Amino acid sequence: MWPRKRLDIGWLDMASLRAAFVFRWNRRRATANVLDAWPADGQTLPTMSVRSGLHLILGQLDWPRGSEILMSAMTIPDMARIVRHHGFVPVPVDLDLNTAAPTLESLEQATTPLTRGLIFAHLFGTRSNMTPVLDFAKRHDIEVLEDCAQAFTGPDWTGTPGCLASMFSFGTIKTSTALGGALVTIRDAELANAVIREHDNWPVQRRLSFASRFARACLMKLLAYRPMFFAFRLTLSLCRRNFDHVLNNFARGFPGADVVPQIERRPCTPLLALMCRRLLRFDSETLARRTAIGERLRCATRPAAALLGHQGDNHTFWVFPVLSHDPQSLISRLRHEGFDATQGASMEIIVPPDGRADTATTIRTAFDRIVYLPLYVSLPDKEVQRLGCVVSEQEAGSR
Ligand SMILES: Cc1ncc(COP(=O)(O)O)c(C=O)c1O
Which atom of ligand 1 is nearest to 150's Cα? Predict the structure, then answer.
């Protein structure tokens, strides 16, 4: 069985992290090294996660309580939770299924006189052209926060000038993961200074808690070997444990609904050291290979199954979500053929504010049809082709 995901980190990086737990103690130097490796056009702060960065920024903005923040409707639940925590109202913005990005019409539809901000997420490995969005935001006096958690492509692209902030994640299942951490670039000096002052008051993440994440990541890497994955699945089914549930919990950064106390931490020194290593040794060839494989799979699954965001700009295929006519049958068939596809459990469609008409009907309707196909550079061409054929055949049959 080809597992659903392989962590984008090598054993050498893992070994360097193990050494960092012993030898790296100078936080100031580790922070400076990260900043040297990230040539952004504003003030950058390495944080423990994108969620920490968003929490810091929203805490320093002087918007009145009840201000509305437009958000790309599909995101992880914590992003909307953090917005609500600050007394703001998250308003979902519909996505175009072809590009996986909000359209100008959907932005217009969701905007009201209370709108102050927009959190625009580049989803699934796409990176949208922000010019029309920034023009729209300027017309309506809206600040744009750019969520690049799923769109990291190395230090050559550090975000869109014109956005108030750009946030990149090094979380466990992300491109070039550091098993956590994020880079948050802020392009307003006053806001950046306030955010940095507040961040300095937070305690440093405990090494022990980062070490436990390291241990979980080692396990996830081992499970990416097919015989291990097979044995793991068999064991769970014999113990009558839900396999999806167990795997999703492995990758979860901050469990439970009470996220805020968990994210108010500064990154520990070993995490900073690993982020720096991932930036300095960023492997653009591997990313190019992933993009080529994604293109091949996109062609092989067309036209029977549409990739959500198949016309997305600058696609690097961080994940490969297709819209299925019968998701459960597709998943069963793929598992039977040796591919671990899944519906995923980490993202949601933001609910509209009470009493307001839904402003994200297209993506809400499509959401339950999404199936994530396994895709990574170690998947051989022959298997990519076979995966495409199975999906096409199954989808053609279930129309
Ligand atoms: C769209 C999106 N936004 C934000 C985040 C949060 O990133 P982090 O784990 O660094 O807090 C994620 C994480 O998966 C994400 O997918």
Answer: 16
Q: Confirm or reject: Cβ of 182 under 6 Å from ligand 1.
A: yes
CA of 237 to the centre of ligand 1 (A): 30
Q: Is the pLDDT of residue 257 over 90?
A: no
- Whole-number pLDDT of residue 327: 96
Query: Closest residue (by CA) to atom 7 of ligand 1?
Result: 50
What contacts 313, CB < 8 A, 6 or more positions away? Answer: 99, 126, 127, 128, 129
Return d(Cα 98, Cα 127) in angstroms, integer: 13
Q: Per the omega criterion (within 30 degrees of 0), is the bond before 92 cis?
A: no
Which residue lies with its CA nearest to atom 15 of ligand 1?
149
pLDDT digits (tens, 9 = 90+) for 287-317: 999 999 999 999 999 888 889 999 999 999 9
Residue nearest to atom 3 of ligand 1 (CA): 149
Q: Which residue has the least CA distance to atom 12 on ligand 1? A: 149
What is the per-residue pLDDT across 105-148, written as a single tens digit (0 to 9) for each? 999 999 999 999 999 999 999 999 999 999 999 999 999 999 99
- pLDDT 10s digits, 242-255: 877 887 777 777 88
Cis preceding linkage at 155, omega within 30: no
Cβ-Cβ contacts under 8 Å for 240 (sequence gap 6 or more): none
Report pLDDT for 26. Answer: 93
Q: Is 166 in the pocket of ligand 1 (CB under 6 A)?
A: no
For residue 115, which phi and psi values (nearest 5 degrees)? -70, 130
Torsion angles phi and psi, residue 84, rounded to 5: -65, -40
Nearest alpha carbon, ligand 1 atom 13: 149
Say how many Å lie between the CA of residue 181 and the centre of ligand 1. 10
Q: Phi and psi of 30, rounded to 5°? A: -60, -40
Q: Is the CB of 145 under 6 A from ligand 1?
A: no
- Expressed in angstroms and rounded, the spacing between residue 385 Cα and the centre of ligand 1 is 30
Question: Domains (ranges, CATH) in the chain?
Answer: 284-397 (3.90.1150.10)
Q: Is 73:95 a contact under the CB 8 Å cutoff?
A: yes
With a 6 A CB cut-off, is 374 part of the ligand 1 pocket? no
- Asked if residues 297 and 388 have their Cβ atoms less than 8 Å apart, the reply is yes
The rounded distance, in Å, linking the Cα atoms of 114 and 86 is 15
Q: What's the confidence (pLDDT) of residue 232?
A: 87
The CA 228 to ligand 1 mean position distance, Å, reads 28
**Percent above pLDDT 90 for the chain:** 86
